[in-house]
Specification:
4-stranded antiparallel β-sheet, 11 strands, 119 residues, mainly beta, 7-stranded mixed β-sheet
Protein backbone atom coordinates (compact mmCIF):
# COMPACT_ATOMS: atom_id res chain seq x y z
CA UNK A 1 0.00 0.00 0.00
CA UNK A 2 1.22 3.51 -0.78
CA UNK A 3 0.48 6.60 1.28
CA UNK A 4 0.85 10.21 0.23
CA UNK A 5 0.60 12.99 2.79
CA UNK A 6 -0.15 16.53 1.74
CA UNK A 7 -1.49 19.83 3.01
CA UNK A 8 1.40 21.15 5.03
CA UNK A 9 2.53 24.75 4.96
CA UNK A 10 3.54 27.84 6.87
CA UNK A 11 0.86 29.26 9.15
CA UNK A 12 0.55 31.68 12.03
CA UNK A 13 -0.08 30.57 15.60
CA UNK A 14 -3.81 30.05 16.06
CA UNK A 15 -4.39 29.18 12.41
CA UNK A 16 -5.78 25.94 11.04
CA UNK A 17 -4.58 23.39 8.51
CA UNK A 18 -6.00 20.18 7.17
CA UNK A 19 -3.60 17.44 6.23
CA UNK A 20 -4.64 14.72 3.83
CA UNK A 21 -3.33 11.19 3.46
CA UNK A 22 -4.13 9.47 0.19
CA UNK A 23 -4.04 5.66 0.36
CA UNK A 24 -3.64 3.45 -2.68
CA UNK A 25 -2.67 -0.08 -3.62
CA UNK A 26 -2.65 -3.09 -1.36
CA UNK A 27 -5.87 -4.25 0.21
CA UNK A 28 -8.97 -2.08 0.31
CA UNK A 29 -8.32 1.02 2.40
CA UNK A 30 -10.86 -0.10 4.98
CA UNK A 31 -8.50 -2.94 5.84
CA UNK A 32 -6.06 -0.51 7.47
CA UNK A 33 -5.97 1.61 10.57
CA UNK A 34 -4.26 4.91 9.81
CA UNK A 35 -2.06 6.94 12.08
CA UNK A 36 -0.51 10.36 11.94
CA UNK A 37 2.94 10.89 13.38
CA UNK A 38 5.23 13.88 13.47
CA UNK A 39 8.90 14.60 13.88
CA UNK A 40 10.09 17.98 15.02
CA UNK A 41 13.64 19.19 14.34
CA UNK A 42 16.06 17.46 16.66
CA UNK A 43 13.37 15.26 18.19
CA UNK A 44 12.21 11.70 17.77
CA UNK A 45 9.11 10.85 15.81
CA UNK A 46 5.98 10.83 17.94
CA UNK A 47 2.43 9.58 17.64
CA UNK A 48 -0.20 12.23 16.98
CA UNK A 49 -3.49 10.53 16.19
CA UNK A 50 -4.98 7.33 14.84
CA UNK A 51 -8.25 6.03 13.47
CA UNK A 52 -9.43 2.46 13.14
CA UNK A 53 -10.19 0.88 9.80
CA UNK A 54 -13.92 1.61 10.02
CA UNK A 55 -13.44 5.01 11.61
CA UNK A 56 -15.19 3.93 14.77
CA UNK A 57 -12.40 4.69 17.19
CA UNK A 58 -9.90 7.51 17.32
CA UNK A 59 -6.98 8.23 19.59
CA UNK A 60 -4.88 11.32 20.17
CA UNK A 61 -1.75 12.26 21.99
CA UNK A 62 -2.50 14.55 24.89
CA UNK A 63 -0.99 17.71 23.48
CA UNK A 64 -3.37 17.79 20.50
CA UNK A 65 -6.60 16.64 22.13
CA UNK A 66 -9.33 19.19 21.57
CA UNK A 67 -7.38 20.84 18.75
CA UNK A 68 -6.82 18.09 16.19
CA UNK A 69 -9.42 15.81 14.63
CA UNK A 70 -8.67 12.72 12.59
CA UNK A 71 -11.24 11.41 10.15
CA UNK A 72 -11.42 9.18 7.12
CA UNK A 73 -13.43 8.79 3.96
CA UNK A 74 -12.93 5.25 2.78
CA UNK A 75 -14.87 5.94 -0.40
CA UNK A 76 -12.17 8.45 -1.31
CA UNK A 77 -9.29 6.37 0.07
CA UNK A 78 -8.35 9.30 2.24
CA UNK A 79 -7.64 10.13 5.85
CA UNK A 80 -7.56 13.66 7.17
CA UNK A 81 -6.04 15.49 10.11
CA UNK A 82 -7.80 18.74 10.87
CA UNK A 83 -5.50 20.88 12.98
CA UNK A 84 -6.94 23.91 14.73
CA UNK A 85 -5.40 26.49 17.01
CA UNK A 86 -1.94 25.56 15.87
CA UNK A 87 0.98 26.30 18.14
CA UNK A 88 4.67 26.74 17.45
CA UNK A 89 5.31 23.40 19.12
CA UNK A 90 3.22 21.73 16.41
CA UNK A 91 5.95 22.55 13.91
CA UNK A 92 7.15 19.25 12.47
CA UNK A 93 7.15 16.98 9.49
CA UNK A 94 3.90 15.04 9.61
CA UNK A 95 3.68 11.46 8.34
CA UNK A 96 0.75 9.14 7.81
CA UNK A 97 1.13 5.42 8.25
CA UNK A 98 -1.04 2.35 7.75
CA UNK A 99 -1.47 -0.66 9.99
CA UNK A 100 -3.08 -3.69 8.40
CA UNK A 101 -5.83 -5.34 10.46
CA UNK A 102 -4.18 -7.90 12.70
CA UNK A 103 -0.72 -6.43 12.36
CA UNK A 104 1.22 -5.36 15.42
CA UNK A 105 2.74 -2.22 13.98
CA UNK A 106 2.41 0.39 11.29
CA UNK A 107 4.05 -1.28 8.33
CA UNK A 108 3.52 1.30 5.64
CA UNK A 109 4.62 4.92 5.69
CA UNK A 110 4.19 7.85 3.41
CA UNK A 111 6.57 10.69 2.85
CA UNK A 112 6.11 13.59 5.19
CA UNK A 113 4.55 16.98 4.79
CA UNK A 114 6.07 19.94 6.61
CA UNK A 115 3.97 22.06 8.94
CA UNK A 116 5.58 25.24 10.20
CA UNK A 117 3.80 27.38 12.76
CA UNK A 118 5.53 30.69 13.19
CA UNK A 119 4.78 34.36 13.56
Amino acid sequence: VQLQASGGGLVLPGDSLRLSCSVSGGYSVDYYAIGWFRQAPGKEREFVASITSNGGTTDYTGSVKGRFTISRDNAKNAVYLQMNNLKSEDTAVYYCAAQRIGALRYGYWGQGTLVTVSS
